[in-house]
Amino acid sequence: MNMMSRDFFHRDIQLFIDHRFDWDRYFSLRGGAADVAEEVETYRTILRTAGEVCEDIDGSARDHWHEEVRLEGAQVVVPPHIAAGYEKLRAAGLLCLTIGPAYGGYGLPALVNCAFIEMLSRADPSLMTIVGLQAGVAQDIEKYGSDELRRRYLPHFVSGELEGCMDLTEPQAGSDLGGILTRVTDENGRYFIDGGKIFITNGGAQVHLVLARDGATFEQSRGTTNGLSLVLCPVTLPDGRANGVRVSRVERKMGIHGSPTCVVEFEHAEAFLLGQRGGGFRAMLDLMNNARLGVSAQAIGIAEGAYRAAREYTAQRVQFGTPIIEQPLVKSMLTLMAINIQAARALLYRTCGLIDMTEALRRLLETDAVNGNRAALQAELEHNTQLIRFFTPLCKYYATEISNHVTRQGIQLHGGIGYMAETPSGHYHSDSIITTIYEGTSEIQASFALKEMGKGALFTALETTQAELETLRDRHPELVAEVCEGIRWITESAPALLGDPRYALLNA
């Protein structure tokens, strides 16, 4: 394997860490850092370490791709290479990277965590689903949990002793969470769950975040997202007793074989409320939106692996006396693969950077440290929030669809050998397919983006891009002029789209 294939913290990722985010402003909003350059170098060191661990995981993941999760009694057993990879990440301190130092974490920005998730997904997308959900569940506990729940669970998430999963889907409630029938009842201030969930990623985890319908308003709220509460349901209760949580089935899948996908049953299982009673849908949206960005990073990581494998193979495969990478159509395919990956990465990393800056703004505005510019900061926060709401479904749609296309092209570039079961090119494609489905299908993401377009988000994004381009006009006049012409064309065409009755039906 050549160095290109082994380079995980590569220059395309480094570009966004080093040059495409305003770290000085970020740390200024957060109250300043003793040395911004030193802080950023710490992030780089973490990502370099992560890259080395991912490189170590990569070979084993490819060799054992076919190995599947098993259910032994009620115990979910992952393949040995998944357990070994998890242990390597745990030993390197690479779990729950965004959780704050108060609970043993690094408190890393979303941008840095995104880079880690992309690298891990390239190495082993199955392992990423376990680690990504663990971090997402921990984030929701950190944001919505009581002080007691945070102290009880978060240090053990960061240390890797506990894993988590989010339990949403039911047979009649897929994209439409208003169909949820799993019930949570309040019995003298204690909460208990009854019902079942399907397609639960990492369903064998020790901590479940469950979206369930409040028993007190069950009939009145059926068919809506009102009356849903988010609760934390541990497999083992704080006093050591087993809780009423059981995995009854592990699914077999086309790809990501090392990731458990489970049917989970709750029989009067005790749980603890996160956030407000009946406010679970809003709390779960945070976890879902973070998960959508995580899946976007997963898709890009898979596509990056497929692209590098295809490039390496075409450079080595000789036909008619010449490496096939020299063939014009092969060159064109590889170039388009790289461009699409870079475009998806640019959109995703931009979105994560906006999330970091917006969170810093939000925290600052909650303090008394703001002087006379509160209105300007509030306007910036609202501007960023509009872009995040628009970009998040776009990331999920574009990155995952591109991943499917790139991995399919990777098979094509391998020729006949790419169709053989033992060839990694097919594995990349099988792993990528699910990214367009879970955490909201591509079609759902498109509808979300269209709704935000109807609220003016497209024009906000175009105006923002135009303003940024003007700062580059002196250095790259021809390129800026070309992109600005594209923006002009979109701006002039958009009203016709938004006024089309078919758009109104899509947005209904």
Describe this structure in words.
- With 508 residues, the protein is of the alpha+beta class.
- Among the domains are: 164-278, Butyryl-CoA Dehydrogenase, subunit A, domain 2, CATH 2.40.110; 457-506.
- The chain is built from 17 helices and eleven strands.
- It has helices at residues 3-6, 11-18, 23-29, 36-63, 80-91, 110-123, 125-144, 147-159, 218-221, 280-316, 328-365, 374-414, 424-433, 442-454, 457-470, 477-498, 501-506, and strands spanning 70-72, 75-77, 164-167, 183-187, 190-201, 207-214, 228-234, 245-250, 261-274, 318-319, 322-323.
- A five-stranded mixed beta barrel has the order 4-5-9-7-6. Strands 1-2 form a two-stranded antiparallel sheet.
- Helix 12 crosses helix 13 (424-433).
- The radius of gyration is 23 Å and the shape is globular.
- The mean pLDDT is 94.
Beta-strand percentage range: 5-15%
**Main CATH class of the domain at 164-278:** Mainly Beta
Structural class: alpha+beta
For the largest sheet, list the strands in their spatial order: 4-5-9-7-6
| Helix share bin | 55-70%
Classify the oligomer.
single chain
Topology as a string of helices (H) and strands (E) = HHHHEEHHHHEEEEHEEEHEEHHHHHHH
Shape: globular
- What fold name stands as the CATH topology of the domain at 164-278? Butyryl-CoA Dehydrogenase, subunit A, domain 2
**Number of H- or I-type helical stretches:** 17
The CATH architecture of the domain at 164-278 can be named as Beta Barrel
Number of strands: 11
Q: Report the end-to-end length measured between terminal Cα atoms.
A: 51 Å
The rounded Rg comes to: 23 Å
Mean pLDDT: 94
The biggest sheet, with number of strands, parallel, antiparallel or mixed sense and barrel status, is:
5 strands, mixed, barrel
State the low-pLDDT regions, or none. none
